[in-house]
Design a protein that fits this description.
Layout (H helix, E strand, L loop, with lengths): L1 H17 L7 E9 L2 E9 H8 L7 H15 E5 L2 E3 L2 E8 L6 E9 L6 E6 L10 E8 L2 E7 L5 E5 L1
Parallel strand pairs: 1-8
Antiparallel strand pairs: 1-2, 2-6, 3-4, 3-7, 5-6, 7-10, 8-9
């Protein structure tokens, strides 16, 4: 049995070093409710956003934060029971380093436990990257669901 495990790891390491590299473009959002707020917590690769928005390191951190936040708010639209919601910035931080550094953005909208439908249009980075995929994981009022957005599928409804 131990030889099979060792053989598996040897094959895995060999395949990993000989396989072609490819790039993955993805953003992840976790949606959940707390008290009277619906929270959207995003993780997006910093280099993807900087490249897409042509952000230079000569800008101040405040300018970068404002530009990125404005872009996310314009690219991630939310309706609750058919009413558009304005998203408010709760948190903006950088995590990780080098090519794995992410921007973590937390936005919120007013929320009622009586809400029955959530509509999201998610076009984050679709205008810059054809391979981009956005994932939204919902955990709202005991409704757990994961929604995937691609360039040809930018809008989704969820009943809660």
């Amino acid at each position: 049995m131990i030889y099979r495990v060792l053989l598996f790891f040897f094959c895995f390491l060999t395949l990993k070093t000989t396989a072609e590299k490819h790039t993955v473009y993805v953003s992840v959002c976790e949606a959940y409710n707390t008290k009277n707020k619906l929270i959207f917590s995003f993780r997006i690769f910093k280099n993807d956003l900087y490249d897409a928005l042509k952000i230079k390191n000569t800008k101040s951190e405040e300018e970068k934060t404002l530009e990125i936040t404005k872009y996310i708010k314009n690219s991630f639209l939310v309706q609750l029971d058919g009413k558009n919601k304005i998203l408010t910035l709760e948190k903006f931080v950088y995590e990780g380093d080098d090519y794995t550094e992410t921007i973590n953005i937390k936005l919120s909208a007013p929320f009622s436990l009586k809400t029955k439908e959530v509509y999201i249009k998610n076009i984050i980075l679709f205008d810059f990257l054809d391979e981009q995929m956005n994932v939204v994981s919902f955990n709202i009022n005991e409704t757990k669901e994961t929604l995937t957005y691609k360039k040809n599928l930018t809008e989704r409804w969820l009943k809660i």
